[in-house]
Specification:
Helix 3 (36-43) crosses helix 4 (92-99). It is built from ten helices and nine strands. The protein is 38% helix and 19% strand. It has 261 residues and is an alpha/beta fold. It has a four-stranded mixed β-sheet. It has helices spanning 5-10, 13-25, 36-43, 92-99, 105-116, 126-136, 142-148, 159-170, 221-229, 243-256, and strands at residues 32-34, 56-61, 71-76, 81-84, 87-90, 177-183, 189-197, 202-206, 233-237. Strand 4 (81-84) and strand 5 form a beta hairpin. InterPro entries: Restrct_endonuc-II-like (IPR011335). This is DUF559 domain-containing protein.
Length: 261
């Protein structure tokens, strides 16, 4: 595969990835497609930095594994494919099963949450994932897949929302609702909370995370003031907060609203 060296030298990581995919797409036979972490990245599925490497995963059906300087080759007896921005990729629910071999449990939950979210577009339904996991059988990653499925949620807009939810559930706190619409007394939309306890009027906002966000989900000063006047408690979580910090802040807010373990 020939890739213009100047493009790789001058571009940032995302652009280099695009250049590699474009270059390989032009020479791929019809029975080859992007798979695994490469397909996931093309779909906008969140991945840990360690997997955002300057190589592409390519699978060939019924042939030898693709080889090359920037290629990690695989083979498959059969596979279902689709296209994402003109690139031929394995279908999302099968990619999800592939990711189970390279992601930890929480990382795979974040990937699955993204696939079930309609922001910015739906990649797979829960039924698709269930069928793919059943077809995967006892292959590598099967145990992680089975553990992941019941922990997935729809309507999750960022991987950090996933992280906060898992922290709260594992701490024995009630599970909040993702991206809940909050309305004022006049019936107008005030904000969309990242994670919300509606009955207790508590909203948890993750600051600095903007994965396909709706403008209404950004709780700025005006919206914060409106929520406060409506009786809501707003907890702001930053990237430097630890799991213990999140558990403490939310637990204290729940206790103030009368919740008991």
């Amino acid at each position: 595969m020939r890739v213009p060296r100047e493009l790789l030298l001058e571009a940032d990581d995302d652009r280099r990835f695009e250049v590699l995919c474009d270059a390989y797409q032009q020479q791929m036979p019809r029975n080859w497609f992007f798979s695994g972490p490469t397909a996931a990245r093309l779909m906008g599925v969140p991945l840990p930095r360690r997997l955002e490497e300057l190589r592409v995963h390519v699978t060939a059906v019924g042939a030898f594994a693709p080889r090359g300087r920037y290629v990690i080759g695989h083979t498959a007896r059969a596979a279902e494919t689709t296209r994402v921005n003109g690139k031929r990729v394995r279908v999302p629910h099968e990619v999800f099963c592939e990711l189970a071999t390279v992601l930890g449990l929480d990382e795979l939950i974040a990937a699955g949450d993204r696939m079930l979210s309609e922001k910015p577009f739906l990649l797979a339904t829960r039924r698709h994932l269930e069928a793919a996991i059943a077809a995967h059988g006892s292959k590598r990653g099967a145990r992680t897949l089975r553990a992941t499925l019941p922990q997935l949620r729809e309507n999750v807009w960022s991987p950090r929302e996933t992280w906060v939810r898992l922290v709260l559930i594992r701490a024995g706190l009630p599970e909040p609702t993702h991206n809940h619409r909050i309305f004022g007394t006049d019936g107008r939309l005030v904000a969309i909370g990242d994670l919300v306890y509606e009955k207790l009027k508590i909203v948890i906002e993750y600051e600095g995370e903007r994965w396909h966000r709706d403008p209404w989900s950004v709780i700025d000063v005006d919206r914060y003031n409106k929520l406060t006047l409506l009786g809501w408690s707003v907890i702001k979580v930053r990237r430097d907060h630890t799991a213990a910090d999140v558990e403490r802040m939310v637990s204290d807010a729940l206790a103030l609203r009368g919740w008991q373990r």
